[in-house]
Amino acid sequence: MILQKQFYLRDDVVQVSKDLLGKFLVTEIDGKRTSGMITETEAYRGLDDKACHAYNNRRTKRTETMFREGGRAYVYLCYGIHHLFNVVVGEEGVANAVLIRAIEPVDNIPVIQKRRKIDKLKPQLTAGPGVMSKALGIKTILDGTTLLTKLNTIWIEDRGIQIEEVDIQAAPRIGVDYAEECAEWPWRFYIKNSRWVSKK
DNA sequence: AAGAGGATGAACT
DNA sequence: GTTCATCCTCTTG
Fold first, then answer.
1. Rounded distance in angstroms from the CA atom of residue A77 to the C1' atom of nucleotide C8
2. Average pLDDT over chain A, rounded to an integer
3. What's the Cα-to-Cα distance from A132 to each of A21, A27, A43, A145, A183, rounded to whole Å?
4. What interhelical angle do A129-136 and A109-116 show, nearest 10?
5. Residues forming beta bridges with residue A23, ordered by sequence position
6. Candidate CATH numbers 3.40.50.1480, 3.40.50.1240, 3.10.300.10, 3.40.50.300; the one for domain A5-191
7. Is a pLDDT exceeding 90 seen at residue A150?
8. For residues A172 and A43, is the Cβ–Cβ distance under 8 A?
9. pTM of the predicted protein model
10. Which residues touch strand B (CB under 7 A)?
């Protein structure tokens, strides 16, 4: 079942971030369908989170996507190289998002390996926000695109897997040392025991 | 108009 | 542990 709008419109971006664990991120790009199970996420909140691009509800050309209604992709270029994929969360006007940091490859793994130029099946393939996007063919051109229909190129499915609270590990987010006290907030979540996580 | 720096990853020593 | 690839966005003047 493709995730519906209500899933994304919730106000609690931290809860949505946890709920995305165990869901399946699917893309259909260059005529090839690839997917993976989400194993690692991070929550970002525009209102009061200094690590968020839209901190203090700051609107710029780049952050405008985050203010849109939940259920769209927010994709931006990091360090001039990496395309980072986020899910926009919340009602229109609320700048919340969830960064997808890692997946466990599921569908069409050979295509994923080819995109990554890696022959083996190992975490390096899809564990990390930049390589995850590369594995699924996600680029900044997808910024603002809806996740709510399979007619498009990217969406998220629930395939009946439920990740229990005890199997979720919370930790501070990666690479946000500049965010002062917010840097310590435990808003990074990953599936315990999964090897498909960017860092232990 | 110019400059700094970033929600990273890979290849080094 | 360190370096650096590489480019867009935002800030400053």
1. 7
2. 97
3. 15, 12, 17, 18, 23
4. 120
5. none
6. 3.10.300.10
7. no
8. no
9. 0.96
10. A 42, 44, 51-53, 66, 74, 77-82, 84, 86, 97, 99, 116, 124, 128-132, 173-176, 178, 198
